[in-house]
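Format notes (please read before filing issues)

Several people have asked whether sequences and structure tokens are stored in separate files. They are not. Every record keeps both together, in the order shown below: the sequence lines, then the token lines. Line labels are part of the format and must not be stripped during preprocessing.
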Amino acid sequence: MLVVDTAAMDGETPWLYYLCTVATTASVIAVPVAPAAAYTVAVPALYGVVRLSPSGGAADEPVRAVLDTLYAVILGIVVLVIITMLRQAAEAVDAAQEGALQRYDMAARQHANEMERVKVDALVHDSVLTTLLSAAAANTPAERQLASRMAADAVRRLDEAAVEVPGVADRADLSVLARRLRSAVTGFSAPFIVRVTDTSGVELPVEAVDALSSAAVQAMVNSVQHADGPIGRVRRELEIRGVGAGGCVIEVVDNGSGFEPAEVPLSRLGLRVSIEERMANAGGSARIDSAPGRGTRVTLAWPAGLDGGRS
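Then the structure lines:
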């Protein structure tokens, strides 16, 4: 009826006009920017031509047809700009996310490599170098026997290094750590006074038990090797304390010659790797208090932030 009787459209905008913006919006979403821009201009222009032709009603007011056409073009361009900006923002977010994931993956790999390096350095220092130094300095039968036991322990630890480590969720009672350290004390030529308190009901992750045990043994080895003075005059103590249901503090103390921690060379692995980094990597902390002529106190705490002081 609209085509046959054009009088029915007098004063009304043809319904086809309202589909222009729908078509241009759909093109912006469906196709790239350049074709969408061309489509956004072409469709309203085609509508204007049809609107001015006899088959389109031969608009009595050409200005009205031109304005309708321009309005459709402007609205289509606005939609085009908004969607294009949203696309660019989404692409930027995707690129940033991808870059962040790549950086995280690289950092995780570097951290894993660093953790493995620290473990290897600590194992070599604690087991191999210490054994070789003790064997080289062994002059008496007792010292040779100690070096032999240390060599056997070094071989055992090297074998254990090739075995898969226990899961992070595995836990062990603190009494296991206490027994392990008591056993280690019997292998030293110098005596240690051992005190164990508040271990009942305390459980720690296996990784924390291993770190505390290895760091404490290394602290005792350092005391035996470097505290100087006649053995009978140097007092050495080992204290193991449970804190709460899942914390532990170990103190290795002697009244030997002491040293200045800030002056220890970075190349010396006994403090930096075998004690400090080992505890940090396991989620714990190590504090070394010493001064020349005032002895040494090594405090190991797990987890990090646990107050290592006496209550």
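For reference, the curators noted about this record: The beta strands are 171-173, 193-197, 203-205, 236-243, 247-254, 285-290, 296-302. Residues 62-137 form the longest helix (76 residues).
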